[in-house]
Specification:
- The radius of gyration is 14 Å and the shape is globular.
- Helices cover about 20% and strands about 45% of the residues.
- The chain starts with a strand and ends with a strand.
- It has 2 helices and 8 strands, in the order ββββαβββαβ.
- The strands form 2 sheets. The chain has a 5-stranded mixed β-sheet with strand order 4-1-6-5-8, sandwiched between helices. A 3-stranded antiparallel β-sheet has the order 3-2-7, with no helix packed on it.
- By secondary structure, the chain is an alpha/beta fold.
- It has a single domain, classed as Nucleoside Triphosphate Pyrophosphohydrolase (Alpha-Beta Complex).
């Protein structure tokens, strides 16, 4: 079986209180929380992917600030390799809410960092996010 490679770009968006914006996705048979993110389309830059995915999932327009973290992992049972780049982004416009045009996102929510584990605990997303929130410097994580 050939390995399927999946590259995505996501955003760490904070509000004035320091809460993190999470999105709830329908997922593979069960809903789950994550940061706003999505796959790069052919010929699309990382910056364009970031802005498009955040807009599609949350209704917000964002500006990329700096790299927050990179997360890489392999799912053996499905022969899938994931490489995801997450950037700290700031809101520059738009209105927060679930977008009718997005079939995957069913909820958006600001969550205080101390409560994120109640929503999101998938290691390739949670561990790098907590490291960035604690240290505010980019890191590469392999799982």
């Amino acid at each position: 079986m050939a390995c399927v490679r999946r590259m995505a770009v996501g955003a760490v968006i904070l509000n004035e209180a320091g809460d993190v914006l999470l999105v709830r996705n329908r997922g593979h048979g069960r809903a789950h929380w994550s940061l706003p993110k999505g796959s790069c389309e052919d010929g699309e830059s990382v910056l364009h992917t970031l802005k498009r995915e955040v807009k599609e999932e949350t209704g917000l327009d964002v500006a990329m600030q700096e790299l927050a973290f990179v997360s890489e992992w392999f799912v053996t049972g499905r022969q899938e390799w994931y490489l995801q780049f997450y950037f700290h982004a700031t809101i520059v416009g738009g209105v927060l809410g679930v977008q009718e045009s997005d079939e995957d996102v069913i909820q958006v929510k600001w969550v205080a960092p101390r409560n994120i584990r109640q929503y999101m605990n998938y290691r390739p997303w949670a561990v790098p996010l907590f490291a960035w929130l604690d240290e505010r410097r980019p890191k590469y994580h392999v799982f």
